[in-house]
Amino acid sequence: MNKAETAALTQSAQAEETESMRGFLAIWTGQAVSVFGSELVQFAVIWHLTVQSRSAIVLTLATLTQMLPRTVLGPFIGAWIDRWNRRYAMQIADALTASVTMALAILFYLGLAEIWHIYVLLFAAALGQTMHTCAFTASTTLMVRTDRLTRVGGLNQVLEGITRILAPPAGALLIELLPIQTILIIDVATALVAAIPLFFVDVPQPAQGTTGEPASLWQDVKGSLDYVWAWRGLAIVTGISTTVNFLLVPAFSLLSLVVLERFGGGARQLGWMEGAFGIGILTGGAILGVGGGLKRRIDTVIAGTGLLGLMMVLVGAVPANGILVAIGAMFLAGIGLSVGNGGGQALLQMLIAPDMQGRVFATLAALRTLMTPLGLAVAGPFADRFGAQSWMLGAGLGITIMVTTVRFIPEVASIEAHARSPEA
Predict the structure, then answer these.
(1) What is the DSSP string of 335-359?
(2) pLDDT classification of 147: cutoffs 50, 70, 90
(3) Which CATH number fits domain 217-418: 1.20.1250.20, 2.60.40.10, 3.30.300.110, 3.10.180.10?
(4) pLDDT tens digit string along 21-37?
(5) Is residue 20 predicted with pLDDT exceeding 90?
(6) How many CB atoms lie within 10 A of CB 381?
(7) Quick one: average pLDDT of 78-102?
């Protein structure tokens, strides 16, 4: 092959890569708008439930309704997505969210809406989000070069930070200005925004047959667990991830008690701490998006999660007059969580075979989500007996010790030897 032919092939490959990246960014932008709209509307809906019912049972059932699609149906959704067209799956997810939300808006307008109708919306929205997120995450590795996946993880963390900071106050403002049915239309509109790029962007499909074709979805789900379990390094990373979730979610659920009991603060101080955490997530995402993290993604994950653990220790150990130190620690904890999550997502996208990603990602998400009620069940009695700050301190120590020692496990240290090439 002469130089002219080589140059032409290189130019063609670069053009295809640029076009693929543009398509990815178009879908990502639509998804970002939809996520923000959904979080804003979800805040308004939950507040409506709170005011109308004033019942902890009603709110608990609402939370469980949102968790069911991810924990129970998620692995099967992932297996289905691996078998089917991922662009169609995302379009169906957006259509499901928009149609159910529109139906509920009409019921509110007619004065016929009941609590169980809201449960249906929350379930359908969570189902649609699970479908869309799973399909888009699995498609990302086929649209973005592996050496850019960490930056994409940074973009996702920036989106989470912006959503955490802006969606609740925006939702609160809209509740004061608009009826609930008008607010619901926002979710319909943002779902349509997410759907539009999917009519114009080609979403590549993974090559089938490298992992075999099981006879049923259940075998697909079992295959995803076998896939992770057989790969010792990946199994260890997964175990640590689920354990971090077990420790972390209750710690931040108990943050209001830490502020009240430890620092003698109120709603304003709690708002400062949560705001600092959200700004930290945004900052960490920006750091990843610009810098791309450390050369080895596993080191990015360890560094970010280690910073998170250390800052949780600081929040749990700081004296009662150290509220400003705790606020600063929450900011750094947000950076650590953002860097660890963004790097971890890029690591998994780089390691897992493309035709397995739907089912594996969904199964891992289900395991992490399952840790939430288990962690809360343990943390509640523990905090009542020893204090909420004790759980924060213990959780931080546990996370720090895990990520400090895992780097010395050979199967984890060499896990990126199985990665695809950067050009893939």
Answers:
(1) HHHHHHHHHHHHHHHHHS-GGGHHH
(2) confident
(3) 1.20.1250.20
(4) 788 888 888 888 888 88
(5) no
(6) 9
(7) 84
Pick the CATH number of 3-198 from 3.20.20.70, 1.20.950.20, 1.20.1250.20, 1.10.8.60: 1.20.1250.20
In which band, very low, low, confident or very high, does the pLDDT at 217 lie, cut at 50, 70 and 90?
A: low
Q: State the virtual CA torsion across 209, 215, 216, 222 in degrees, nearest 10.
A: -70
Amino acid sitting at position 102: M
d(CA 343, CA 46): 32
Q: d(Cα 335, Cα 416) in Å, to the nearest integer?
A: 24
Q: Per-residue pLDDT tens for 319-349?
A: 888 889 999 999 999 999 988 888 888 888 7
Nearest in space to 65 (alpha carbons), one of 109, 24, 119: 119
pTM: 0.72
In 54-148, where does DSSP find H-type helix?
56-68, 74-83, 86-110, 115-143
| Average pLDDT of the residues of the chain | 80
- Residues in Cβ contact with 61 at an 8 Å cutoff, skipping those fewer than 6 apart: 119
CB 423 within 8 A of CB 350: no
Measured CA to CA, the distance from residue 386 to residue 197 in angstroms comes to 52
* Residue ranges of the chain that CATH labels 1.20.1250.20: 3-198, 217-418
Q: Which two tokens stand for residue 373?
A: 């009620």
Query: Please, what is the Cα angle at 24 between 358 and 70, to 5 degrees?
Result: 30
- For residue 342, which of 163, 159, 145, 155 has the smallest C-alpha distance? 155
Integer-rounded Cα Rg, in Å, for the chain is: 22
